[in-house]
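question for whoever is on the cluster today: can someone run the full assembly for these? two chains, 319 residues total. i dont have access anymore since they changed the login thing
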Amino acid sequence: MQLTETGESRINGYLFVLERSLKTFLARDVVRDAVREIESHLRERIVAADGSPDERGALEQILAELGPPLRVAQAYSAERTMDEAVATGRLVPMLHAVGHLAATTFTGFFAALGLLCGYLSAFGFFAIAVLKPIFPDNVGVQYVRGFPVGIGAHFPLKPGMELHGGYAVIPFALACGLGIFVGTHRGARGFLTWWRNSRVS
Amino acid sequence: MSHETWQEQLRRGSLDLAILLTVSTGPLYGLAIIQHLEAFTDLVVTEGTIYPILGRLTREGLLEAQWVEGEAPHPRKYYTLTPAGVKRLDHMKAEWRAFADKITRLMDAAEGPDHAAH
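^ ran it for u. tokens below:
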């Protein structure tokens, strides 16, 4: 089947969306190779559909059988990013995988939001432990009118606010930060494992 | 777990074996692998999702990929089984047969005359 200009535009549009999606998490040479392979598949199918009087119908069927570009990109994501993240448990691949899911899926967005809160809380506690020796009068357990209202740093302290806890805040913040970090990281790995196992390929 | 989820897991779990078996017949390009799978099984639901699996099997060193130009109006990426792939396939086949035998024996026992009487 010799494609018309409209048909070529449809193919190029599909490949463009696929390439853009793959570029968010794959290296450039890997993306180029993947898009080339998918284009080869499409051209092969188009040649096989030679003689079809309805170019548009035949083309749409070929593309439907191949799957929407975002779904194909998700399958690549599942095979590469997810596998690396789940297998190694390393922070960077996991953040990469969660970030990609957040950008492409509804569930991933909310999961990423929750995980982001967890990681930020952990780093907040780590920051308290680091800042306490540098700003001993501004970091600690904050009390207002004799009641504890929080833990953190204030520059300067609000009127009526007192700091308690002394340097015991450091091990406390480290323990809390580590606990939240490990919990969030395990949660992230569990979520990615679940997503990878439940993906539709 | 719903029946559909179980079916999906079964299908996904056997896809690697099916792809390695297909490529074991000789060098094949993506579409030829898909067509072979479609001729013998209903494992391929979305054609485009087979390519990432081929990529993973290549990264794992079980398949070797090579672009061939001039054979068709467009280049084709051919996949062949590596020695590591042959070894893995042998293991997978043996494990699949053993697993299938056990499940079959279990089903035979469940469907036996004693079971039917109850």
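summary bc i know u wont read the tokens: The first helix of chain B runs from residue 3 to 23. The CA atoms of residues 1 and 104 of chain B lie 22 Å apart.
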